[in-house]
Write a structure and sequence with these properties.
Layout (H helix, E strand, L loop, with lengths): L4 E3 L17 E2 L6 E2 L3 E4 L2 E4 L8 E4 L3 E4 L2 E8 L12 E3 L10 E3 L4 E5 L1 H7 L3 E5 L10 E2 L5 E8 L4 E5 L3 E5 L3 E2 L17 H14 L33
Antiparallel strand pairs: 1-8, 2-17, 3-14, 4-5, 6-7, 8-14, 9-10, 9-13, 11-12, 15-16
């Protein structure tokens, strides 16, 4: 797995998770949330590793939704180290309303809301992989100590969920192995990569726009009630 050492589920039977809900489908890429990251759920802010299939979490578009699949991996940093492309991203304490450091896998999509996204894709909302956030408010690539567990959540459809610090994490539904994940077909949000993602993040850096990526957790409605904004407005497409 791109240089990662992955502990087999058999190495720790307590960590085995049932994948029966979505047999034959895969979540791909270096996505996921590190154990300890808290998720807004019907039980309040709950560590992601404590969630189970069937639990309901708060989504940006569709209020409370049930988790249909969970993937768990225990990752060990190899002795040779890791290229920066594959290192988790550290969001330092206080960068985005977070009260402690947050670690994100490099390909974990994060929802951004800003005018630059509207200019780039005709919608003020876009998803950017965490690795492109390097340099914004002290976010940098790093390596968590020792072995760490990564949990990837999935739902019946693409969802964006509330995570610690008011951040919004993109959870695409699992897709068939041979499906062209990069095509974006049927996806709710545009995922920006390459020059488009760099442009968007540079705009955030220039404007020091922390609210584009994170909101005050106090503004997230009291759980288990629904979100303040049950859905996102559809912006007109200036390109036609």
């Amino acid at each position: 797995m791109f240089g990662w050492k992955t502990k087999r589920p058999g190495d720790n039977p307590a960590r085995i998770e049932s994948f029966a809900a979505l047999d034959g489908l895969l979540i791909t890429g270096h996505t996921g949330l590190l154990a300890g990251t808290r998720i807004a759920s019907t039980l309040g802010w709950k560590p992601v590793e404590m969630l189970r299939v069937g639990d309901k979490v708060l989504t940006f578009d569709n209020a409370m939704q049930s988790i249909t699949d969970i993937q768990r991996e225990s990752l060990v940093v190899p002795d040779t180290g890791l290229p920066s492309r594959y290192r988790p991203m550290r969001v330092p304490e206080g960068a985005l309303y977070n009260c402690r450091d947050i670690w994100l896998m490099p390909d974990q999509g994060m929802l951004v809301e800003c005018e630059a996204a509207l200019d780039a894709c005709g919608d003020p909302y876009a998803v950017v992989p965490a690795r492109y956030l390097r340099g914004f408010r002290g976010i940098e690539a790093g390596i968590p100590p020792g072995t760490f567990e990564v949990i990837t959540l999935a739902f019946r459809q693409d969802e964006v969920i509330y995570v610690e610090g008011g951040l919004l994490a993109y959870c695409p539904k699992p897709r068939q192995l041979l499906e062209d994940i990069g095509s974006g077909r049927g996806q709710e949000y545009d995922t920006l990569v390459g020059p488009a993602a760099h442009f968007l993040v540079n705009c955030l850096i220039d404007d020091d726009d922390g609210d584009a990526l994170g909101g005050n957790p106090a503004d997230v409605p009291g759980l288990p009630r629904g979100p303040i904004r049950p859905g996102r407005p559809m912006a007109p497409n200036p390109f036609g």
